[in-house]
Amino acid sequence: FIDRVLRGLVLDFPGLKIVLEHATTENAVAFVRDTPQIAATITVHHLMINRNALFQGGLQPHAYCLPIAKRERHRLALRRAATSGEACFFLGTDTAPHPMTAKEKSCGCAGIFTAANALELYATVFEEDGALEHFETFAALNGARFYGLPVNEGTVTLEKGTCPVPETVAVAGTGDMIRPFRAGESLGWRLAE
After folding, report:
1. Contact predicate 113/95, CB 8 Å
2. Is the distance from CB of 81 to CB of 42 less than 8 angstroms?
3. With the C-alpha atoms ordered 20, 25, 28, 29, is the resulting torsion angle positive or negative?
4. How many angstroms separate the CA atoms of 148 and 116, rounded?
5. Which residues are catalytic?
6. Of 3, 39, 71, 88, which is most buried, counting CB atoms within 10 Å of its CB?
C-alpha cells in the first residue's frame, strides 16, 4: 500500500495531512518518519503481540485482526516508535467488539476488542519500555496537534494497581458475549477513582 498508493498520494497532494491508520510494520514507521505530512496511529495489541499469538496453544480467533499482527521485528519497531515521543505517532485503539459467536467460527470477524482497557494496556507497554514520560504525548497530545485541533481539557488518571480483565463482557440486550484483549489477566495499571 505504501509503495503502490501512499507515495503517489503524497506526491500528488503535498499539502494534504494523511494518517496511516494502524501502522503495523517497520517499513510504515520509517515512511512516516521520513514524510512530514504523514502521521500514524498504533494499536496497543500490535505493540503487545506478534503473528505467533494467532497459534499459541492452537488457533486463537481472538488474536485475529486486520491488519494482521506481523513478525516480532515489526512489533519491536512499533514499540520504539510509540514510546519515542515523536509527534508523528499517536494512539489508535481497535474498538472491535465482535461477539464471540462471530469470532469463533470459520471465516470469523477480524478485530481485537481493546477499548475496555486500552489506556491500561498502553501504560503497561510504556512502563515496560521505560518511557512513561512519553505516554501522555502519545495518548493525548500528538493526534490533536497533528490535526491542528485544541488539546482536550479533560483528563483521566491512571495509577499503579491491579486491574483484572474480565473473561467476557456482555452485549446489552443480545445475550452475546465479547472476549476482551488479555481476558482473564490482571494488568498493573488501572483508572484512578
Report:
1. yes
2. yes
3. positive
4. 28
5. 94
6. 39
- 3-state DSSP of the chain: CHHHHHHHHHHHCCCCCEEECCCCCHHHHHHHHHCCCEEEEECHHHHHCCHHHHHCCCCCHHHCCCCCCCCHHHHHHHHHHHCCCCCCEEECCCECCCCHHHHCCCCCCCCCECHHHHHHHHHHHHHHCCCHHHHHHHHHHHHHHHHCCCCCCCCCCEEEEEEECCCCEECCCCCCEECCCCCCCEEEEEECC
pLDDT band at 15 (very low <50, low <70, confident <90, very high): very high
DSSP at 190: E
Would you state the pLDDT for residue 44? 98
Are 181 and 168 in contact by the 8 Å Cβ rule? The answer is: no
